[in-house]
Amino acid sequence: MLLSQRLPRLVASTLHLLPLFRQQQYSAVAFTALNTAATNPLSTCPATTLTSTPSSLPKSRQACAMSSSSAAAGATEQPTLAGAAAVDSTCAATTTKKEEVEEKLPPLLAAEFQVYNRMAEHMDLFHAHFRQSWNLLWNAATGGKRPAGMSMRSFILEGLQFLRYLTVHHDIEETHIFPVLAKKMPEFKAGRGNGAAELLKQHKEIHKGMEMLEEYLTACRSGEADLEMRVLKTKMEPWADVLWTHLDQEVKTLGAENMRKYWTPDEMKRLPM
To answer: Based on CB atoms within 10 Å of each CB, which residue in 25, 176, 217, 270 is the most buried?
Structure first.
């Protein structure tokens, strides 16, 4: 009888804890205190009652606090752990959505965009040259004839020069640029087999095709083979998709919106390119 008389007062007295927990643990801790008082009526707490929802809390937290206050208002009914978990789950879900919104980066100013997009712009200039050289070869291979005014020798040398420049370009990237970027960016991390970043795996696939094309053009230059456009196409087609994917993906990866996630403006100015 004594315990039943003291229980409502003890449960209500735990409400003084509610204003103390205004962050993510607000509801969970408050309900834990209520359950503790209900199951252990011999514990004592100062009698303080929550009369209103703290106005300083965000609206999402006010909703959680109001739910906690309402649940505690019926002091004669013991709050259940299931009810506490449900309210806490609601608060957690609201917090997660709020944090996702807060993580969205603000728009870049024009000057900031220029700093962060510097590497992408430089890379795209190199890639534009490679696209142009590829198209010259590919259009001849698919059209069945060389560009007007270009001799057979000049055409073959154009193809070999394209391969040589692309090889040097990739060597510079893998030696001087990618290792620096990989310190913060997983998109450029080296590794063995499938452990390598996608851009590096693309390099390997591209070089397999380059070797095949170089072998054919070298044989044509030396006279060991005749240059046939249909054969040239078979030497280019297998790696056409991965090459164009790489040329676009690499520039996008170096773009301002991605680079700002990893580097400060001052760091961007010191990155090699």
So the answer is: 217
